[in-house]
Amino acid sequence: xxxxxxxxVKWKNGFSNSFPVRxxxxxxxxxxxxxxxxxxxxxxxELEENGMxxxxxxxxxxxxxxxxxxxxxSSTEEEMQSMLDxxxxxxxxxxxxxxxxxxxxxxxxxxxxxxxxxVQFKLDDxxxxxxxxxxxxxxxxxxxxxxxxxxxxxxxxxxxxxxxLMNVGVHGTNGLNPxxxxxxxxxxxxxxxxxxxxxxxxx
Length: 203
What we know:
Residues 1-123 form the Reverse transcriptase domain. The chain is α+β, with helices and mostly antiparallel strands. It has helices at 32-49, 77-93, 146-165, 178-194; strands at 6-7, 10-11, 14-15, 19-20, 55-56, 59-60, 65-66, 69-70, 122-123, 126-127, 133-136, 139-142. The protein folds into 2 domains: 20-110 and 117-144, no CATH class; 147-196, no CATH class.
């Protein structure tokens, strides 16, 4: 399926010359997400088998992942650096790159020797940027007030969605009939408040 694969760029009414596709999966392809999961699954398995990352009871929760969007969770600095090193070795072996400055660390660690601001994680011998918060799969991860921040973000997103639907008649005066309005509200607005699959806070 991927032998001698070529692609073109469409711009307005024109097409570029064909060029060979030598890496990655076909963008927009039906099987692409499944093929990528097969490609990355060995890394997730290795992290779990090495016992690196957080657990809830006996359930491993150290690397929640969706496609190429991954978050590493650990309760110690040393283990986190080890997880980053494992991810880097895997990327080198399988010939893809993790950009160290496009990934961020949210550091909640603190002990007698270091403060949160002094902890510095590295990827490919480069310092990773530290941030107070970041977004993963529509959920805001933050150093403090994470739940409050997420609740306010979801309410704000749902409100914007509801306002945008008013232009198509989802309102109480001379609009769509109430049953239709309720169905639209349930399908498009409510998922924004509950982080259901398909909703996103990163729009």
